[in-house]
Design goal:
The structure holds 2 protein chains of 2 kinds. Chain A contains 13 helices and no strands. Chain A is an all-alpha fold. Chain A has 2 domains: about 50 residues; about 210 residues, MetI-like (MetI-like fold, Orthogonal Bundle), CATH 1.10.3720. In chain A, helix 3 packs across helix 13, helix 4 packs parallel to helix 7 and helix 8 runs antiparallel to helix 9. The longest helix of chain A has about 50 residues. Chain B starts with a helix and ends with a helix. At the A-B interface, helix 1, helix 4, helix 5, helix 6 and helix 7 of A face helix 1, helix 3, helix 4, helix 5 and helix 8 of B. Chain B: InterPro entries: MetI-like (IPR000515), MetI-like_sf (IPR035906). Chain B: Keywords: Cell membrane, Membrane, Transmembrane, Transmembrane helix, Transport. Chain B: This is Sugar ABC transporter permease.
């Protein structure tokens, strides 16, 4: 009798402490949710506000206190589309970023392959030198590049921007690919060579399938960087090859306080890459470590 | 012996042919403009005064190096890079730890946090300039008003700080992305063992999480450094380097010389100085980080 009582008391107190523990776990989770979401919303707020503003009228856009509830209108979108054809710029952005990314991968893969599998004394130095070329301010070499482009007829052409962006991203692409290739055991490639595979076959049939996730995330980063680059696109294009960065710039200065139209143009310019980035973020995260995660 | 030697040459040849495209392209990309810039930097070459030309000797360098604006711009460059690095690394580490915890809606919250990374620098600068930091109609002015505080005219009174804020907002997600990935590879057993030994969350953070993140943090520092040294669009859109030179960095100073003053010679001399500076930074930084990564 007494034992069963003490048992049940023990069981009850165990249940109480278990439920207390569970409650404290839930409390902790609630607090974490609150903190994390507050920060997430603060980080996202400028983007959210821009998208919201793009559906306002100009008067609502600059209202104080800020208007949160309003009748959405697409007036801003219609007006900016009448001024400049969004799709022309968007198409240029797509062609240029994809072109530059593919070209950079094509040139970087053999190079990264040789660095990873046939390293020499100079490999590390070459890699560092490549990265250091990225630290040069573009503006320092703008004039020579402009003159060369003018003489080659590359000004305001998609080809010209593809070349520039490929060069701009090449160091990062080589570096990232190198870190992925280095993780592949040499024996696998040795085996391929024993079976009589040439270097190209080795790369295409063994290395690329094995490192596809890494190559994908390298490519994704390269697309994003090319899409968002503003300096060269503003200085080397005027109309034919102008990508979305130039589209935005055309709305920025003379518009003054026309925030709704500016927001509409900005929303259109970032929407494709934001959606693309969100959709591929899992893939990208896996590779965005530059060899920092073992 | 012979086979080994020949094997080495074959390997060398293969290395050469495989690396040739990337290396030669980057060499051209670097050398051709560099040589042209060097050439211009010794010339009297102003687009507004085509009649004045010829060899200038080191005049361009002399004017530039004795011009206080160069040192202001260098100081601003270092301040900008330094503050953004500190803010993104500290903030990124804390956020990565936070976003690694279990909470409701974690996936969506992560998407929200990393979103600024995908936004064009021009767009984010425009949004911050107009809708956030505008002294009359901006959100920050409105928030300050709620607390009875005077609105701050951000770009007039705190130009460099404003740019640091905008750039930090853009690069914080990058740090979070990398550090979050790194944290996920942290060994749970190790953390559990430490907890058993009575280590609190703070001790675990400093003695286990932080050392584990060392490599990832050095990668963040290196990659960000590469991009931050040449920040341009954010300054161009918001302050245009002003007021005065308060938010002019080296890249922007060269831009002013080349495209606003049409002084090709002076701008080229500035370009050469920027290139030298970049190489000094690259030499020390990349070497340190690379050593860190090798271990």
């Amino acid at each position: 009798m007494s034992t069963s009582t003490s048992n049940s008391v023990a069981a009850a107190s165990a249940a109480v402490s278990a439920s207390r523990a569970r409650r404290s776990v839930i409390n902790k989770k609630l607090v974490l949710t609150l903190v994390a979401w507050t920060i997430a919303l603060v980080m996202f707020f400028p983007i959210f506000w821009m998208i919201l503003t793009s559906f306002k009228t100009e008067a609502e856009a600059i209202a104080t206190p800020p208007s949160l509830f309003f009748t959405p209108s697409v007036e801003g979108y219609i007006e900016i589309q009448a001024r400049a054809d969004y799709f022309k710029y968007a198409l240029n952005s797509v062609v240029i970023s994809l072109g530059a990314t593919l070209l950079a991968l094509l040139i970087a893969i053999p190079s990264a392959y040789s660095m990873a599998f046939l390293p020499t004394k100079r490999t590390q130095g070459t890699l560092l030198w490549m990265l250091s070329t990225k630290m040069l301010p573009s503006v320092g070499v703008l004039l020579p590049v402009y003159l060369i482009f003018r003489d080659l007829g590359l000004l305001d052409s998609r080809t010209g921007l593809i070349i520039i962006y490929m060069l701009m991203n090449l160091p990062i692409v080589v570096w990232m690919l190198y870190t992925f290739f280095k993780d592949i055991p040499k024996d696998i490639l040795e085996a391929g060579r024993m079976d009589g595979a040439s270097t190209l076959q080795e790369i295409f049939h063994l290395l690329l399938p094995l490192t596809l996730p890494g190559i994908a995330s390298t490519g994704l980063l390269c697309v994003i960087l090319s899409w968002n680059e503003a300096f060269w696109s503003l200085n080397l294009t005027t109309s034919n090859a102008a990508p979305l960065t130039a589209y935005i710039a055309s709305f920025s200065s003379p518009e003054g306080l026309f925030w709704a139209k500016l927001s509409a143009a900005s929303t259109l310019a970032i929407a494709p890459i934001l959606i693309f980035g969100w959709m591929t973020q899992k893939q990208m995260v896996r590779g965005l470590t530059f060899g920092a995660v073992k | 012996m012979r086979t080994r030697a020949s094997g080495r040459t074959v390997g060398g040849l293969r290395t050469l042919s495989l690396q040739a495209p990337a290396v030669s392209l980057l060499l051209m990309w670097m050398l051709v403009p560099l040589v042209m810039t060097l050439w211009f930097s010794f010339q009297r070459y102003n687009l507004m005064m085509p009649s004045v030309s010829g060899f200038a000797g080191v005049d361009n360098y002399y004017y530039l190096l004795t011009d206080p604006s160069l040192w202001t711009a260098m100081g601003n460059t270092l301040l900008l890079v330094g503050w953004v690095l500190v803010a993104t690394v500290v903030g990124g580490t804390l956020l990565a730890v936070l976003l690694q915890q279990e909470f409701f809606g974690r996936g969506v919250a992560r998407l929200f946090v990393i979103a600024p990374f995908f936004i064009m620098p021009t767009v984010s600068a425009l949004v911050w300039k107009n809708m956030m930091m505008h002294p009359v109609n901006g959100i920050l002015a409105w928030v300050a008003g709620l607390f009875g505080l005077p609105a701050i005219d951000w770009f007039a009174s705190l130009p460099l700080t404003s740019i640091v804020i905008i750039v930090t907002w853009q690069w914080l997600p990058f740090a979070v992305l990398i550090l979050l990935t790194a944290i996920q590879s942290l060994d749970d057993d190790q953390v559990e063992a430490a907890r058993m030994d009575g280590a609190g969350p703070v001790a675990i953070f400093f003695y286990i999480t932080l050392p584990h993140l060392k490599r990832a943090i050095s990668v963040v520092v290196m990659i960000e450094m590469i991009f931050l040294l040449t920040i341009f669009a954010e300054i161009f859109v918001t302050t245009s380097g002003g007021p005065g030179l308060a938010s002019t960095n080296l890249a922007y100073l060269i831009y002013i010389r080349a495209l606003l003053d049409f002084d090709v010679g002076g701008a080229s001399a500035g370009g050469v100085i920027a290139i030298i500076l970049a190489n000094i930074v690259a030499f020390f930084l990349v070497r340190t980080v690379a050593k860190n990564l090798e271990n």
